[in-house]
Amino acid sequence: MQLPFTEKQFLDLFGAYNARVWPVVVALWVATLWCSAGFVRGKAGSVALSALAAAHWGWSGLVYHALFFTRINPAAWLFAALFVVQAVAFVWLGIVRRDLVFQWDRTPRHAAAAALVAYSLAYPFLVLLSGHEAPRAPLFAVPCPTTLFTAGLVLAASRPAIPVLIVPTLWALVGGSAALKLGVLPDVMLFPAAVFMVVYGVTRVLQPGGY
Where are the domains of the chain? Predict the structure, then answer.
């Protein structure tokens, strides 16, 4: 894959992004930790989790992609549109229609969901441990940890709606491949996340009453 930007441009972009919006980065990380812990304790409902996911995708689409990433990659306009569509899908299916029901249980599927959510929260620290330095590093409130968090969330859904699986799976493959080429090693988890989402989605569709 030939990228239209250099590794230096990529990391410089994160430096500018983190310097400008770091309060939102921190706030989204804290909100995600709070809601994830509340979900496990049965104190965070499906609507709240859908709203949080929508906030992640909307922010990454409108701010990260549209305002920053477009400076070095014209394709980021397409990414921005897809991320906004994903945010709208969470609002429509999770908040308006309430078709997305997230349930916590002690099963292998829920263990995988918890691992992905925990990994998304650990992502900024794993990036720093892998050799990158703040602020010139992808930390949080950016596409890859957003995708990892979403993968964990949909694995905890009693029956995931296919529309909320498409964009995260595509980004896990495309964004993961590009980020690995740029040396962001923690993004390797995007590939298992894509497999989990595809397998769970197909399995649910094939069940009676699936969609």
Answer: 7-204
